[in-house]
Automatic annotation (TrEMBL):
Cross-referenced InterPro entries: DNA_mismatch_repair_MutS, DNA_mismatch_repair_MutS-lik_N, DNA_mismatch_repair_MutS/MSH, DNA_mismatch_repair_MutS_C, DNA_mismatch_repair_MutS_clamp, DNA_mismatch_repair_MutS_core, DNA_mismatch_repair_MutS_N, DNA_mismatch_repair_MutS_sf
Gene3D superfamilies per record: 1.10.1420.10, 6.10.140.430, DNA repair protein MutS, domain I, MutS, connector domain, P-loop containing nucleotide triphosphate hydrolases
Location of the DNA mismatch repair proteins mutS family domain: 722-738
Keyword terms of this UniProt record: ATP-binding, Coiled coil, DNA damage, DNA repair, DNA-binding, Nucleotide-binding
One of the Pfam families matching this protein, by short name: MutS_III
Statement: the UniProt record of this protein carries the keyword Lyase: no
Positions contributing to ATP binding: G648, P649, N650, M651, G652, G653, K654, S655
The name this protein goes by in its record: DNA mismatch repair protein MutS
Family: Belongs to the DNA mismatch repair MutS family.
Coiled-coil stretches noted in the UniProt entry, renumbered to this chain: 524-551
Described purpose of this protein according to its UniProt entry: This protein is involved in the repair of mismatches in DNA. It is possible that it carries out the mismatch recognition step. This protein has a weak ATPase activity.
Amino acid sequence: MRQKAMQAAAAGATPMMAQFIEIKTANPDSLLFYRMGDFYELFFEDAEIASRALGITLTKRGKHQGDDIPMCGVPVHAADDYLQKLIGLGHRVAVCEQMEDPAEAKKRGSKSVVKRDVIRLVTPGTITEEKLLDPSEANYLMALGRVKGGDESLALAWIDISTGAFRVAPTRPDRLLADVLRIDPRELIVPEALYYDQSYRPVFDVLGRTANPQPANMFDSASAEMRLTRFYGVATLEGFGRFSRAELSAISGAVAYVEKTQKAERPPLGRPERDDEGASLFIDPATRANLELGRTLSGSRDGSLAKAIDRTVTGAGSRLLYERLMSPLTDPDAIGGRLDAVSFFLSEAGLRDDARRLLKGVPDIARALSRLALNRGGPRDLGALASGFEAAHGVAELLQGREVPAEIVRALSGIAGLPMDFAAHLDRALSDELPLLKRDGGFIRAGYNEELDEMRALRDQSRRVIAEMERQLSEETGVKSLKIRHNNVLGYYIEVTANNAAAMNGTDEAKARFIHRQTMANAMRFTTTELAELETRIANAADRAQQIELAAFEKLLGEAVAAADAIRAAADALAVLDVSAALATIAEAEDYCRPQVDDSLEFHIEGGRHPVVEQALRRQLAEPFVANDCDLSPTGEEQAGAIWLLTGPNMGGKSTFLRQNALIAVMAQMGSFVPASVARIGVVDRLFSRVGASDDLARGRSTFMVEMVETAAILNQAGPRALVILDEIGRGTATFDGLSIAWAAVEYLHEQNRCRALFATHFHEMTALSEKLGRLSNVTMRVKEFEGDVVFLHEVGRGAADRSYGVQVARLAGLPHAVVERAREVLQQLEEGETSGKASKLIDDLPLFSVAAKQEAKASKTPDRVGEELLAINPDDLTPREALDALYRLKQLAAQK
């Protein structure tokens, strides 16, 4: 309907507006940047949206069907800044360029418009511009493929066109959201039928504008092979490996969307590589959010685990660290390989520092390559490749001849594959100072191209060249007063006085060489073939110099694209070295230990610490973090994980203790040293965490309902190798309801899930379960009471807390005195064991809260002469004698009171 309306509107429009409407109709889901001279203009609804989003003035341009046409625009030279804001808000933009010189359109008639076409669709998942990308974050476009059959099959394929990375993995409906959030794409494209399938709506509702429906034919698994062979320029996919139909559907959708958005350009994508199911630690969405792995609950990178442990010095290294953190491994051998690389750099501090100094100068060569391949790059991107090659070989030479672990050996082999002839060509061709845009010229080194040097000399030193010719002609003719001059009519000409004219035309040879142009009263003017040619060359020198440089740029670009696989492999290798050295750096600085990760069910941590909280305490309060042990290893002959039931007061550190053990597991399995003195961890295949309280009002869920949904997911999915972190289950309902649910959940974890678990609770009655459940141990957060106050020791010890100290915490939080005292009275009555029916009698047995509050308020209004006198004193104005007198006076008033 919308398309028909747009076509009808075009029928009565001006030629230019009809063209806009036609192009907009073909791109209905994108804001249309319509090129008009030095501006990109937006019209109609696009203008209204962009005006609000960008904070720019909304104007109008003529009328259409009797109404004003809304319009706004942005300068072409500043378009990237505006694109960044629009893309950040989730918009998609179609960039429509002028495809011819406006002068050509005028030749066709007054009603002709400049030919325009969309050269690119800019979407959140397909940007490559350096200014629009965060160097420390990948920018993934993800496609969801589905094949219906006896059992519905799903798969995900994700591409970062800024680096060429291309992965694919199977998934299932029950873990779809978790798998999507593990990759954290900027854009997820979905077949239209699947997008509107109500069974998948909860997933797409959570993802919001990230999910983008696309035509089903893009995901056709039957035509996927033809699409891929055409894209990669191969005859068959046999060399790519074997993929399921669902995986081919996802791969096809991703490639089709790249073709759709990039038009004629092709990014240098690597071949799709499969992530096998189960190869990475499964972390459900709630756990990922609660543990704040990549971002805090507020969406900030500051305060997250990723930020706390990132010591990388390159953008590619930071992206790889984040990827490893979000997808920890489950293969002990692969984890050990990564840990070996960290250990190597930890033991070789001097070598590590030298390598990091070299790596710090490495540009983002993978992204530079992608921009070049998509015709969005410039001389500085070629320079980035040259600098990257130099640094890569420097790092390789640094490590050459040393006994290094397999992870580093593989990285060095990636660097060794760099094309040395191309690196040498770049070094010969590129100047030391490079412009941003190739059209600016000056990026080819002097001496690289003889003709270019000559054209530059003519362009930049035309006066010197003319003076040299003038000298030579003066010597040849013997006319010392001979001059070469220039005007707008004749151009360059030779001028001699009338007395010297014979030297120019006195002989047949002279006449043949010097061509008469003009006779003046006292002078004669001539030209020569050489001078005419020189004039033409001078006039065309700048254009010719630019043509030569652009041709050299295209040649270098072609070599870069031809070497794309080798360049990408070297970029990946440098990222691996950066991450390994960075993890060694933080391990040394923060006193982390190497974890022992194996196939057992052990979970033994000594001196464990929270990596984020520890840094925050040191930075903000200059206080040390209190380390604690945790042992959830199987006990006795029964091979099943242990459960720790943790009791203790609020603010005692329960949540921190729970989280730190989960984070230690994540860090260990990503291949990092961990904040502990000893860590022995049997591989965790699934990590679940229910920590913190939140609601989901948009989906009609209360805080308690969200808690129960997340708890249900844990109890239904956790297996023997899982690690489960639960905090305060059952607190969102009545006391006995909550206690019953928490009690049953612990029993289920012990008997059915048989997993390793930490369970924090305020229900002290549950500590009795240790007598019934053999693998359950009671531990508590230790506190001390001093003169009515509670001191939190933040230490975990064996045993159970006898109370929660909630009233003391309430007092520390600043609750009104009346509330605190009333709470103490109620608590005393309840703790006497008379809970049966007592709650209903408290109103009669104890002073009503409202009465107590009024009595305190009345007391606070009673005149207090001591207080008034004290407030009237200004200590800075008193002499020592006056201060002593005031003190005696206050003491006397207090005695009278």
